[in-house]
Design a protein that fits this description.
The protein has one domain. By secondary structure, the chain is mainly alpha-helical. It starts with a helix and ends with a helix. One of its GO terms (biological process) is cell wall macromolecule biosynthetic process. One of its GO terms (molecular function) is metal ion binding. It holds the Pfam family Glycos_transf_4. Its cofactor is Mg(2+). It is a multi-pass membrane protein.
């Protein structure tokens, strides 16, 4: 427990240092920070909170020697993904193709060198296809790459992405505890500690934002830990990890469908009609005289609650793929109904 408290302390220190330097020295601030349809804050704010998460997580590596054999490969494969995201946070000039290339490099190394990937979905015909390395790699790239980008998509309001990531990591840690897997339990607690320090500076006052680097790192690391967890227990299904990731993954898929199929625009084109943005409009409409920062922060708890529709069942049916698939479908129905009811007012 001492190692996790130290990791949390360093995450707080690094996060606070970024905020102080931004305030005193105007470091880490982007002149275009307030421009764009997906900008809902009102003061220039540093977007490199992910640096605090990454550095504090790395410190955890040195504090937990028993985990170093698995932590080192995870850090090695996640670093390229983090770096390309961090460069985007500083420059805002990285093309999406370059981000995909870096994600592909990281996943290829993890798949072929460290044997971390998706090789089973629990059905004979899918597992037969996934047994071919190139198909397994392609599917791993699709799912994990989707998860990485999905967490970045939901990183829109104070505490939203980091709060969700903490909930999902707590869920995986709980199941690891039930199965007596101390390694996976400690990995999740380390990720929680590194994220929580940032969260305290981000929610509710919005002093610091995660940025692409942090969202990519957390999404990639969480996915890798989940894949390692599944590989260690025959009773576990990859559907368990997908159930934990259901909220951001469906947000991404629904967004692509809405933009590409319904609106006929590019899937990568930013817009203001993600569910969290519509809920923010609803919050503002019901509290138009409220503080803008508080209205921003009030948006996140609604989405945390929504994510529990798939997270909580995963705690109880982690070993039953059919029930997990059923709850994933329930989540998608609930999400779609909520979206359509709110969208009628604002689209």
């Amino acid at each position: 427990m001492q190692a996790f408290l130290i990791t949390l302390a360093f995450s707080i220190i690094f996060s606070a240092l970024i905020v102080v330097l931004a305030h005193k020295k105007q470091w880490f601030l982007n002149q275009h920070d307030l421009c764009g349809v997906q900008k809902f804050h009102h003061q220039p704010t540093p977007h490199i909170g992910g640096l605090a998460v990454f550095l504090s997580f790395c410190i955890g590596y040195f504090l937990l020697p028993d985990l170093q054999a698995i932590l080192l490969p995870l850090l090695l494969v996640s670093t390229p993904v983090f770096i390309i995201g961090l460069v985007e946070d500083f420059s805002a000039k990285i093309y999406p193709l370059w981000r995909l290339i870096f994600i592909f490099i990281s996943l290829s190394v993890s798949f072929f060198y460290f044997d971390i990937g998706i090789s089973s979905l629990g059905f004979a015909w899918t597992d037969s296809l996934l047994s071919y390395p190139l198909i397994g790699l392609a599917f791993t790239l699709l799912v994990v790459g989707g998860a990485v980008n999905a967490l970045n998509v939901i990183d829109g309001y104070n505490g939203l992405m980091s709060g969700y990531a903490i909930l999902a990591s707590l869920a995986m840690a709980f199941v690891a505890y039930q199965l007596g897997d101390s390694l996976i339990l400690q990995l999740n607690l380390l990720l929680i500690a590194a994220t929580l320090g940032f969260f305290l500076l981000n929610f509710p006052l919005g002093k610091l934002f995660m940025g692409d680097g942090g969202a990519y790192f957390i999404g990639f690391m969480f996915s890798m830990i989940g894949l390692v967890f599944v590989s260690r227990h025959d009773m576990l299904s990859n559907w368990f990890v997908l159930a934990l990731l259901m909220y951001p993954m469906y947000e991404l898929l629904f967004s692509i469908y809405r933009k590409k199929i319904i609106n006929g625009t590019l899937a990568s084109e930013p817009d203001g009609y993600h569910l969290h943005m519509l809920i923010h409009k609803l919050v503002v409409a019901n509290n138009s005289q409220g503080d803008k920062t508080m209205n921003n922060s009030k948006t996140s708890p609604f989405l945390w609650a929504l994510s529990l529709v798939s997270i909580i069942p995963a705690l109880f049916w982690y070993d039953n793929k059919l029930v997990l698939i059923g709850w994933a479908c329930v989540f998608m129905v609930v999400y779609t109904i909520i979206y359509r009811r709110i969208a009628r007012k604002y689209t």
